[in-house]
UniProtKB/TrEMBL annotation:
It comes from the Bacteria. Residues 1-51, 118-146 are annotated as: Disordered. Residues 1-10 have a biased composition (Polar residues). Residues 130-146 have a biased composition (Basic and acidic residues). The lineage of its organism: Bacteria, Pseudomonadati, Pseudomonadota, Alphaproteobacteria, Rhodobacterales. Belongs to the bacterial histone-like protein family. GO terms for molecular function: DNA binding. It holds the Pfam family Bac_DNA_binding. This is HU family DNA-binding protein. The keyword DNA-binding applies. Keywords: DNA-binding.
């Protein structure tokens, strides 16, 4: 059996270990990108809650419709919005924004709906953007069609 052991060879017969390269000086690491801090702010109410009568007064002033015509339309719109929220539907109402329901909880005296509202940034009233100019160019004048 000794002859079999000698045929394998010894550790000294093995190929030499590869040489390690000389350590290169460490390059300075690229500067880490600076983190962007997003501030979360909770708006502090500066004015009292907007009640239905004040909302109706503002709608009448803005639309120049008589109060007796605006009141049923506003009440119907609020009822439809309330029913849609009760059904769990999300709302996408252009000037108000997109309402996404996060969770609901049934309480003894009613339902609590926790929702997020995302509003687009207001556009400049005076400045025409490239989109506005392109939209205006694509529309034909009524006189051109004749």
């Amino acid at each position: 059996m000794a002859s079999k052991a000698s045929s394998r060879g010894s550790a000294s017969d093995a190929a030499p270990a590869p040489r390690k390269r000389a350590a290169t000086p460490a390059r300075p690491a690229a500067p880490a990108p600076r983190p962007v801090v997003v501030e979360q702010s909770t708006p502090e109410p500066t004015q009292p809650d907007l009640k239905r009568q004040e909302l109706l007064a503002q709608v009448v002033a803005r639309s120049e419709v008589k109060k007796k015509y605006a009141k049923p339309a506003l009440e119907a719109a609020l009822a439809v919005i309330g029913e849609a929220l009760a059904e769990g539907r999300e709302l996408n109402l252009a000037p108000m924004g997109k309402v996404k329901i996060n969770r609901t909880k049934q309480m003894a005296n009613g339902r609590v709906i926790v929702a997020r509202i995302r509003q687009n940034a207001p556009r400049d009233a005076g400045g025409d953007t490239a989109d506005d100019k392109a939209a205006k160019e694509g529309v034909a004048d009524p006189a051109e069609g004749r």
